[in-house]
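Notebook B, p. 112. Complex prediction, attempt 2.
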Amino acid sequence: MTLEAGNLSLDTVGRELTIGGTPARLSRRELAILEQMMRRFGRIVPKAVLEEKLYGIDEEPDSNPIPVHVHHLRRQLDAAGASLMIHTIRGVGYILAETKA
Amino acid sequence: MSRRIKSLQLRLTVELAALFFVASCLAVGGLIYSASLTAGSLADRELGLRAEDLARYIALDENRKPRLELPTPLTQAYSAAAQQSLFAIRDKDGHLVEASTPEIGALIARWPQADSEPSYFRLSKFGPLERDYSGVSIKLDSAAGPLSVLVAEVSGGNQLVHSILREFVFDIAWYVPPFVALALLLAALSVRRSLLPLRKASAQASAIGPGSIALRLPEADVPTEALPLVIAVNHALDRLEQGFVVQRRFTANAAHELRTPLTIITARLDTLEGNGQLSALREEVTRMNRLVEQLLCVARLDSVALDVSSPVDLRQLAEEVVGSMAHLALSAGRTIALTGADHPVLVTGNAAAIADALRNLIENALAHTAPETEVVVEVGPEGTISVEDSGPGIPAEDRQHIFERFWRGKGVRASGAGLGLAIVMEIVRAHGANITVSDRVPRGARFDLGFRTV
């Protein structure tokens, strides 16, 4: 199944991401986060949902908290010229939305 | 009558006071008058007794002439008060038997013989001291046959009678003020008590407003005189309520009828290929959708009593509302955040309605906060929610109007219809909650909602 949002395209089975047609490499956790964000494009993704997805699938303890992953993810999207941006909604969660010009 | 007393209670009290005063003056005057009559007859009786006393001590001397032989105490008493207690006695032939002073002896000589009926008289400026006397002359039988006896006493000289009279008046005078005061107090209390239902009615009347048009003034216990007014007011309220209901129904119907075509327009617009004008049109339709939604919300709040008895987790509710509005905030170039308690905050209320209120407050904040700033929603552990923006704030003179329906501030970007805060107010009222508006430092407005915790 392929998720589309803005100029992002994510193949959820093959775990392949393209930004504006160009393949982009992300870590597993970053991909998991982005998948959740793209599934709920334009809607809020509560922090609790991300936590559940990350720690539910992956048993091994993760030293980095979610904000750190989101920070990295945001930087990579920006560098790759994504038309979308991850916004933090303090106290609630994250939302993937169109970048404001 | 420009200075008429407006207070019924005060007027009744004042008029009753005047009435009581006049009545007690009349009563006291009457009592004094009858007391002085009694005193007079007492004095007359005493004079008569004294005359009989004198006649009893008349005896015949060796020449068979009548002679007064008073016992020593009486002689002393009469001579001690020679100018106060006068007497004179004549026998049946007109000869003077005895007189306490020469003047009274001369006087009786000029008078005709007394009758057996006592005849009372007054002497003014009599004797060497020129005093006033009142007296009696009467024909009495004695050991020396019938005699004319005259007895007179200085007016006001009877100490006993006068002291009794004075004491009596004094006593009455003492009783009158407390009696009048007590009667007045009772009158004032009774007036007050009979006006109490009217006071209740006016308290009830001030509770009647757009949100409570079904209230009526209580007719029980209202005094008969005021009942027609109360009934007439209630009938007027009936007619007003009728008009109100008709108008509300119209609003609800209108909003409802608008909804279907709007839904169709929205759906059609979404299928069209976009350009700048189309997205402007979409924005307008979105606004219109929101307005119709708000109108329906107002109509619903007006017609159905809100069930506000369920437990509501404010924290979770705020999270959902803030999350659902995040995209709206971002697309308007603003952000939104939720702070405060990170554990459930339970209050009693209606979750959907509180969410509606919060949504309207956030919408309002987003419309006024400056670009690139954050609207902050905070949930307090004591059952409070606040919404802060970084806009121009709300001028103090506008604060009493912001919750009115269709009210919009001057010079404010006209984005809404002015219903949002009215909806918030209705919901707050239905919850018995409280709402305050304040300034945020350094700039902006802050709304605080306080609910009853579980």
